[in-house]
């Protein structure tokens, strides 16, 4: 018996089963986590019905049912367990809170009124209620549900077109004017600085002053046009009667969309669901980042990861090549390898502090003093930006690339090197044409690991360039078109900000889950792209097509 027992353990089968079981458990945990996140995220955008609830005291509640759960009553027998239901009552500007818990034994009636409307607003979150009237210049032009709803549907697209024109003027046209004004101001300041040592170019200064006058004239024209558009949208208002006898009047232009959730067909709900998902991906956030889209955060995350990858791979590969192919093996090289391995375990916030001190204050401050003196004391590169954040994450992930590249280089058979050298190739030609192509799959593996870690880091970014809401993207139509000095948004920081810094945490939960799911998807997409490239390189290497 003892012999069989010892033979069983010496065979190694138990360890194989233990390893396989641990792998299976890890996969189950990962899949379960993704399923939980997806279930909480994707279900949020499905338009639910509005239920009107009447309580024993005569109070009426209109909202969407969120969850029902037993009330914790340890002294009550199981047979008499009581339940409570959470409703999203919205109308935060009327009630002061978006959600309300109600004990089920207090409910005496439930109904689903056909004329109950859900208004998605640009500010203050959703509004639930019954449309009462529509006014133009203070005069009622439609009263009662049917006429008012018809008039609202007629006016809303027009006000949204006007609102889109307002946003285009504010962000594009006036934004371009302000950008040029700032450039001219800095150019004049530079000429005045030069004039301290020599006579400034009076003709050039006069031309710049004339340009400023013209830009100010154009600004005033756009400001007058904006006022006209705002006044036009302010003419149309509507009145909503909310539950509890409260009334709310607001402009038609304040509504993103409105619909009757209790009258929607299955196809109507699906169309609205897709519209909301597209809005989440392509639009900008609103209402303290708890509603709207996350496109600026998607853009910032992807661009930062790409810049980080471009920076980290060359330096990591060069360092690994030197350590493996050129450096004389000894105590010094072993110490460097130990340092690289230990560097991978340093907390990420330490890299953030280093990036702030070295990249932002030292390098960025020096760049400002040398190339942007006229802009001082306002920093250009001497403050957080996407470039410094990417370089900080490159330092954070370079040990991963070095280790993976070294292992890949050591896996290249020695016979390949010796054969190349025997045929007359130099050492560099051997490395360039034989060693590096063979090690490319391993190098890409290191890049994949670096991208996966860098995309999810948040702590270093908080002090090197990421912000809650970036007014402009790093990419625009102004030369040099790609502005590496600008601050940016990031999906990981967006999750932190919405989940832990939002003034309305309960309403922000769906956005947290949705952004988490999107971040996981982007990381998977970036990694899968690199994996496909790596596998193709392996195939080419296997069949000798390098």
Instruction: Give the proportion of residues in helices.
Output: 55-70%
Q: Please, how many domains?
A: 3
CATH class of the largest domain: Mainly Alpha
**Overall 3D shape:** flat
Q: Over all CA atoms, what is the radius of gyration?
A: 31 Å
Number of helices: 14
For the record, the CATH architecture of the largest domain stands as: Orthogonal Bundle
Task: Give the biggest sheet.
Answer: 6 strands, antiparallel
How far is the first residue's CA from the last residue's CA?
A: 57 Å
CATH superfamily assignment of the largest domain? MetI-like
Kindly state the number of beta strands. 13
Please state the average pLDDT score. Answer: 87
Order of helices and strands: HHEEEHEEEEEHHEEEHEEHHHHHHHH
Taken as a percent bin, the fraction of beta residues is: 5-15%
Please state the structural category. alpha+beta
- Contiguous low-pLDDT stretches (5 residues minimum) are none
CATH topology of the largest domain: MetI-like fold
